[in-house]
Amino acid sequence: MINGIMRIGIYGGTFAPVHNGHVKAAEEFFRQMELDLLYIIPAAVPPHKQLDANDDPRHRLKMCELAFGDMERVFVSDIEIMRKGPSYTVDTLRALAGEDRRLFLLMGTDMMLTLDRWREPEEIFRLCYPIYMRRENDPIIEGRIVAKNKEYLAKYGKIVRRVPMEFVDVSSTEVRDRVRAGESIEDAVPAAVAHYIKENGLYV
User: Is 133 helix (H, G, I), strand (E, B) or coil?
Assistant: First the structure.
């Protein structure tokens, strides 16, 4: 906490399922941004992604609790799952904002490049400091990121800052595909999450 202002991180997503890349991103986000608290917020109905027809957000919430439960000052929140309708980030930011809080919103590269197409992007930039991490090794994207940040600075008076992170080669899609193929996911997700997926017959 600096000058009575609490630094709060917000890391939302589908987490279908949560994997080691998500955990590493949360750890680096917390450390590098010197956060006081970090909220992990699984989306109920993500506006930007299509979930499987049999998706149950309560399973995704529980897996996040298993993955992040041992991390100090990291809290898994059901705020979006409990809210009806699409999980718009701007609504979550409004709910968590306060004069004694500085909000930092973590996202991936794909979300960073399309942030101006989210609901009320000007309000998102007003309420928080957007942060992105790159989990891909594509040098071509760097030019697009620079150009997009110039647009954001001109439109909203802020850029999306980068938190560097060591590349973690895993995705939720890959984890689901490996489960369907009967392959092990022990190297891709926390052990408790792997056990939960098996015990509940998820992604088969």
Answer: strand
Q: Which residues contact 39 (CB under 8 A, 6 or more apart)?
A: 8, 9, 10, 11, 75, 76, 77, 79, 96
Per CATH, is 6-199 categorized as 3.40.50.620? Answer: yes
Q: 101-159, pLDDT tens digit by residue? A: 999 999 999 999 999 999 999 999 999 999 999 876 677 888 999 999 999 999 999 99
Instruction: Say which residue the tokens 């991390």 belong to.
Output: 71
d(CA 94, CA 91): 5
- 3, 36 Cβ separation under 8 angstroms: no
- pTM of the predicted structure, to 2 decimals: 0.94
Dist. CA 93–CA 181, nearest whole Å = 39
In the numeric block, the tokens 């991180």 are attached to 9
d(CA 58, CA 78): 9
- Structural tokens at position 166: 């060591």
The alpha carbon dihedral of 108, 109, 115, 119 has a sign of negative
How far is the C-alpha of 138 from the C-alpha of 167, rounded, in Å?
A: 11
